[in-house]
Amino acid sequence: MSPLISAVALKELLDTKSADSKIHIIDVRHNLQDPAWGRSAYLEGHLPGAVFFDVDRDLSSTPTGTNGRHPLPERADFAALLAGRGMQSSDHYIIYDGSNGIFAARLWWMLRWVGCANVQVLNGDMSAWQAAGGQLERGEVAFAPAVEWQDAPRLVGGRVNVDEVEVNIRLKDFLVVDARPAARFSGEDGQMDPVAGHIPGAVNRPFSNNLDESGQFKSSDVLRREFSELLGVRPPSEVVAQCGSGISACHNLLAMELAGLKGAKLYPGSWSEWISDPNRPVATGN
What we know:
Blueprint: E1 4-5, H1 7-16, E2 23-27, H2 37-44, E3 51-52, H3 75-84, E4 92-96, H4 102-113, E5 118-122, H5 125-131, H6 162-171, E6 175-178, H7 182-186, E7 203-204, H8 220-231, E8 239-242, H9 249-258, E9 265-266, H10 270-274
Parallel strand pairs: 1-5, 2-3, 2-4, 4-5, 6-7, 6-8, 8-9
């Protein structure tokens, strides 16, 4: 199954699905500056049958001040959350947001992390659905009754922790790829975090580079060529994706999956965790 689904293909799927089909449409819209906006926007209008997942409450654990802005929950805890909402590892998941797929990509990665094989992101986000003439519904859709989770092997490269990233500055066992915009990576733009710059040795691949001028993902051939140029001789298994808090890093992981470059890992704490300890080194410039 492709990691992406077009708005047209999704309309056809919803028009022909049977009553007992296990398809979950998940709205994961979010605004980093206004965390309450996502649910409000969802209630005002969402794809038919879509349920809402909150980035801060459902896709993150509790920030402590030293573990990043969006700490990754434990794998078992996230699986339990899904099961409590009537979702199963064998079900079909379709995810969308309103932000070029960065929040949808985070949920895509997490679902694959707990063993869900059939997970797709709406290419072009909610705007593509509306441009294709897709209708919206108002109000909240209730979750299905709880089920017992059927454990399955993870289908992504896994994660690394801050200690591994710190040791890697010396050992260079893997390449850290930072998904933040170039100005944040270089340190020119320090508005988001109290410390500007990047992890020494990291390279920059802004998540926006994965998209074409229409806001949809570039073709798999283009993505493969671009990532291959960035990675050089390193295989995907020696790549760690990072960003500000483990969100847009997943956009690069999704793009790599589309390119056929599987096995890269996620550093969930990312820059916001890295700078919580003033003893960790910081680099600036390109």
